[in-house]
Design a protein that fits this description.
By secondary structure, the protein is α/β, with parallel strands linked by helices. It contains 18 helices and 18 strands. The protein has helices spanning about 20-40, 45-55, 70-80, 125-140, 155-170, 185-195, 200-205, 225-235, 255-275, 305-320, 335-350, 375-390, 395-400, 400-410, 420-425, 450-460, 470-480, 490-500, and strands at about 40-45, 60, 65, 85, 95, 105, 110-115, 120-125, 145, 175-180, 210, 220, 240-245, 280-285, 325, 355-360, 365, 370. Strands 6-16-15-14-13-11-10-9 form an eight-stranded parallel β-sheet. The protein has a four-stranded mixed β-sheet with strand order 2-3-1-12. The chain has a four-stranded mixed β-sheet with strand order 8-7-18-17. A hairpin with a 4-residue loop joins strand 17 (about 365) and strand 18 (about 370). Helix 1 (about 20-40) crosses helix 9 (about 255-275).
Amino acid sequence: MLKKLKHEIPGISASPYRPLDESGVRRVADAALEVLAKSGMAVYSDTAFEALRTAGAEVDAESRIVRFPRSLVEDAIDSNPSSITLFSRNGEHDVVLERNRVHYATGGTAIYVLDPDTDERRPSTVEDVILNARMVDVLEQIHAFTINVFPNEIEQKDHIDTNRFFHALDNTTKHVMGGIYSLKGCQNVVRMARMIAGSAEALREKPFVSFITLIISPLKIDRDYGEMTCYLAKEKLPVVVPTEPICGTTSPITLAGNVLTHVAETLGGIALVQCVNRGAPGICGSVGSITNLQTMDHLGGPIERAMINAAVAQMAQHFEIPLYSTGGTTDSKEVDIQAAYESAMSSLLVAMSGANYIHDIAGLMESDLTVSYEKLAMDNEILGMCQRVLRGIEVNDETLATELMIEKGPGEDFMTEEHTLRHMRGEFFVPELANRQKRGSMSPGDNALARAKVLVKEIRSSPRSSRLPVDLRERILQSFPEIRSPQDTAGVRSRKKEECRG
């Protein structure tokens, strides 16, 4: 394996973009604790309600309102790990969430893909879970696989999680994170992961899977997500408790009000995790955005979304809690100029904030509804540029080359110098898709999108091999007969494609 260049190593510490000043950070922190103490949250999960009551929260059984004393939340912040490692199965792509270390992942659980053969939008399937996992396994700048599409042909709710996680684990050795759809499905995924790890303890020691529940804005923990959060906390497995407030609909319309909503809600989730199992690995989450003022619909690509997520990253660093953030999204329906500039701007801004795990950052478009394989490849290149920015400019005797400049003197070039040869490969990010040729030497149609299509085709056509040992894979399939192969669902996929066209 080739040695990675400095800007290719995941977990580079960011040179921070900080939309909040220090006074703003303190005010948001105090306000979040005040909201949790005075407004509280509606908690509809019996297990969560009882855990918070036992820990000292003020509860109203009739209204289901739980108010969090400041001391309870502060204790939860102190007991939650400040560093959480999301392990890869081969040890080459471990993701360490701490301070301002930055990592990139897919995400979104889109319900459509742009078909790589037709460029038409169609419902996503099991086969798309597989292809996305295979692409993430190859794309170096994407450090983990957040399962990013929904298998629409899996109709039974309890079977969704086992299908999504199995096909992810079968096709990449990078860390796999995913949203979960039922408590039974979540428990089955944990059972499957234990089989792969060898034991429950081995899985806790090196968790190669993690899970996303959800806080419902404004200020609600619903029954299903609450029960799943409590189960994962008891198992001491990494659980993200994200919140998705939208300016003007489920949060105040101001960016500051939205940031406050984010912080209060996700701290409520962290408090729940710690009340269930002190020291369990809880991860804050930031997914919200602004609205289209003409329709009040959610937007994926505005620059304000990146600013919000950068501000929440500041708050997570203030509380010293790992953060699952959002970047790289677009409202474009095509892989076009809008997709490029919206994705690039938000990716760079959120990366420079030091957000630890930036999901949605590759492949997602159409206000988080659709995944494009070509965009996934192109975003990988954008992330390489982000990494180079985070690396910064190193200043030392070797990089300054002061003595060499004096020795060469005016009017001399540096093309054949040993210093040039030493640094020429490691100093720059070299894109694979961007066309840097002069116009006269270009082939017609040779552009970044065309090259992305070629890369997608190469990955699709390459022989597919399981990332699981053969005997283990067979045992998993025997233990979980609900797991469907692409061949099992081909007829359903064809029918859904026709429905989409109609």
